[in-house]
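Box 3.1. Reading complex inputs
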Amino acid sequence: MSLWTTLNRVIFKRTSTFVLAGVAGAFFFERTFEVGSVAIFETLNKGKLWKDIKHKYEQ
Amino acid sequence: MAAAVGRICGARLLKSYGVVGPQVAQLSTQSQGWSRNRKWILSTLGVMGGGVGALLFALEQSVQASGSEAHPPHQPWNHFGWYQSFDHASVRRGYEVYKQVCKACHSLQYIAFRNLVGVSHTEDEAKAEAAEVMVKDGPDEEGNFFERPGKLSDYLPSPYPNENAARAANNGAYPPDLSYIVSGRKGGEDYIFALLTGYVDAPAGVVLREGQNYNPYFPGGAISMAQVLYNEAAEFSDGTPATASQMAKDVATFLRWCSEPELDERRLMTIKAIGIFSMLAAVVYYMKRHKWSTMKSRKLAFKPVSKK
């Protein structure tokens, strides 16, 4: 609970830091989510994608 | 069904719940429930909607059943499934089949050489593919049209200049453009595969005109396209044995890519949508529990005013 209180006091109380936290959170969330989804997609389709066969055709 | 419900619910079906029952059943807070007119309108709408839907379904089914063509069997395409991307090696082989076999009669006018880059060919390979064809360009500074080697931005050349020329060269039958053929035909790639591998001798009693062939998967059975895919009819650059069924599978995959080049994107989007919506569902569930907690734990106490 004390973590929550600290977070509240340091970040969420002031509008400027709150907005900043929102923007930074959105950025990191988007990056993690995107990279994670692509990683899942590429694992599920290993060997079928262009990136898996393109080494055969590049000089 | 009714008997089962009666046995499970028993006497509770008959019990009166006072005013709450009808309110809950009709999603309404009015104590009277729906008026007669409203009931009548809504039930008419329901019956009409259901009837029209059933009629459409029945018509569709009867049209499918009344045709003489064979229905293509379902094949285990490896891009079928919620998360399954294209097999890009297969798309590449399919392009080779198109180039060596189909291109003689069928155009692919909505696919440009640049579309192949990063899908089945490297940029250099796609440039080389484009440079093999001659494209009409112009007018130049003197107003003349001229031929030049193709560039990445050029579309795949058509075998005939226009539909009339195509008909004249093919006994009056027009070889359709293949760009959207998989989306445009019932059965999709199953149909293409069945058609390409399904040529048989015409059964007794079927009269074919000059230049026609018999294919049970083609509506009507008489198709002007001859069987083109025989073993070793094309050559694969990756060394895969070029059997007729392998070529049919690869070209059907390639044509699905032509019709739906965004399929890989969509599969990735499915994964993302499932991720985002499961998070949102968790939030919504929490919010619901949060909002309802006061209502669920509320107790109403009636305190009658005592008559003195």
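In summary: Chain A has a mean pLDDT of 92.
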